[in-house]
């Protein structure tokens, strides 16, 4: 053991160190970046070597629908950063979510899902899984009693999203995972909003953590991907069945772009947190804003729970307004530094006025979702104000 290893033994590396220092592979010839293995297959010198790889080396690259060295390097880094044993990357966040859920349930099983879950995930349960006899119940994730009441004898999975991505409600992760374990169910969470930098669901008992790498992890609005992170056993189960059969795999090029973005994730999250809170605090003072939904604000009803579960906050939040939808859309048109778009996690600020689906009855007026990018936050605040002045 080197002197550095002796000094740091038992210490968890900080996130920025994790994303910068790779466990280099000699095949990379000392390259400080991971090469793109842009190939569909990998050949073997002898048939004996091929047979050995098939029988004994499940992680050995053979065909890029299964394993690819570029993607594997990203998977190793994401697993280490999030604190899981193993990771599997996918072609999109929904590919990761769909594959992971399908691996956890079968005909006759039941899922408890938070009611304000990401819209496409809700549609997966409502429109797809029901075709195969999988049941579900949407529960108010802010109430442990509501979650408990949703449990059935055939419940096999709790699906959480904390915070949710429209009204930013939290679930008590420790309480939910304890409840799930008491009935023999797995717990999954979409951790995209908080990122590995600000929330470690594994420390609170969650079995599988999901991310859309298209958002903060990729960070540059130029890649689409997803990842599932968990134990060796759980990721192995997903890999052996749905992952290989459904084929929603990440390409080497996407993995390379995502790895590049990952290098600066902790630094970017520091800036996002500061920018997001500053703009959210300013929004609370504006006359046509009824309520700001940001877990980092003391006005958030679950502010204390957020401090217990998270070490920081990202920069996506929402506000309710007393202006009609048509007026607030004209307000969005007048913004100079916000682009109108549905995603988030890149460098640029975004705005959208979503149509609230079932499960969002608590909103008092139209909801506007803001994503605060890396720009000067004061400039964004002034932009928001001038747009309001033009429509009121």
TrEMBL record:
Q: Which UniProt keywords apply?
A: Lyase, Pyridoxal phosphate
Q: Which reaction does it catalyse?
A: L-homocysteine + H2O = 2-oxobutanoate + hydrogen sulfide + NH4(+) + H(+); L-methionine + H2O = methanethiol + 2-oxobutanoate + NH4(+)
- Chain positions with N6-(pyridoxal phosphate)lysine modification: 215
Q: What is this protein called?
A: homocysteine desulfhydrase
Cellular component annotations (GO), alphabetically ordered: cytoplasm
Q: What family does the Swiss-Prot or TrEMBL record give for this protein?
A: Belongs to the trans-sulfuration enzymes family.
Q: Does the keyword Acetylation apply?
A: no
One of the GO BP terms on file: transsulfuration
PANTHER family referenced in this protein's UniProt entry, alphabetically: CYSTATHIONINE GAMMA-LYASE, TRANS-SULFURATION ENZYME FAMILY MEMBER
| Pfam families found in the cross-reference section | Cys_Met_Meta_PP
**Domain of life the protein comes from:** Bacteria
State the organism of origin.
Paenibacillus sabinae T27
First-level EC class: lyase
Cited InterPro entries: Cys/Met-Metab_PyrdxlP-dep_enz, PyrdxlP-dep_Trfase, PyrdxlP-dep_Trfase_major, PyrdxlP-dep_Trfase_small
Q: Does the keyword 4Fe-4S apply?
A: no
Report the EC code(s) recorded for this entry. Answer: 4.4.1.2
């Amino acid at each position: 053991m080197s002197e550095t290893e002796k000094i740091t033994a038992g210490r968890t590396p900080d996130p920025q160190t994790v994303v910068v220092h790779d466990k280099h592979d000699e095949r990379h010839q000392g390259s400080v970046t991971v090469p793109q293995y842009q190939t569909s297959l990998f050949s073997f010198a002898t048939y004996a070597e091929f047979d050995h790889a098939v029988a004994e080396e499940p992680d050995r690259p053979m065909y890029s629908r299964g394993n690819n060295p570029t993607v594997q390097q990203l998977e190793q880094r994401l697993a280490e950063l999030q604190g899981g044993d193993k990771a599997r990357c996918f072609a999109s966040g929904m590919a990761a979510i769909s594959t992971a859920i399908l691996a956890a349930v079968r005909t006759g099983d039941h899922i408890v899902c938070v009611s304000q879950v990401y819209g496409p995930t809700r549609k997966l349960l409502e429109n797809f899984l029901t075709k195969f006899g999988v049941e579900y119940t949407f529960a108010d994730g802010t109430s442990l009693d509501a979650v408990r009441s949703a449990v059935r004898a055939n419940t096999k999975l709790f699906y959480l999203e904390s915070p949710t991505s429209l009204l930013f409600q939290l679930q008590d992760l420790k309480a939910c995972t304890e409840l799930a374990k008491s009935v023999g169910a797995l717990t999954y969470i979409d951790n995209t909003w908080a990122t590995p930098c600000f929330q470690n669901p594994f420390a609170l008992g969650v079995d599988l953590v999901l991310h859309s790498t298209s958002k903060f992890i990729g960070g540059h609005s130029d890649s689409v991907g997803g990842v599932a992170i968990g134990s060796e056993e759980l990721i192995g189960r997903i890999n052996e069945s749905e992952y290989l059969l459904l084929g929603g795999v990440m390409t080497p090029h996407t993995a390379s772009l995502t790895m590049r973005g990952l290098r600066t994730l902790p630094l970017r999250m520091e800036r996002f947190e500061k920018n997001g809170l500053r703009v959210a605090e300013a929004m609370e003072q504006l006359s046509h804003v009824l309520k700001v939904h940001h877990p980092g604000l003391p006005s958030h009803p679950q502010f204390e729970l957020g401090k217990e579960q998270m070490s920081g906050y990202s920069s996506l939040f929402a506000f309710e307004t007393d202006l009609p939808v048509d007026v607030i859309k004209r307000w969005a048109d007048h913004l100079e530094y916000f682009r109108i778009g549905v995603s988030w996690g890149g460098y640029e600020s975004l705005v959208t006025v979503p149509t609230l689906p079932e499960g969002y009855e608590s909103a008092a007026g139209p909801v506007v979702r803001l994503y605060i990018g890396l720009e000067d936050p004061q400039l964004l605040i002034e932009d928001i104000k001038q747009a309001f002045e033009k429509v009121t």
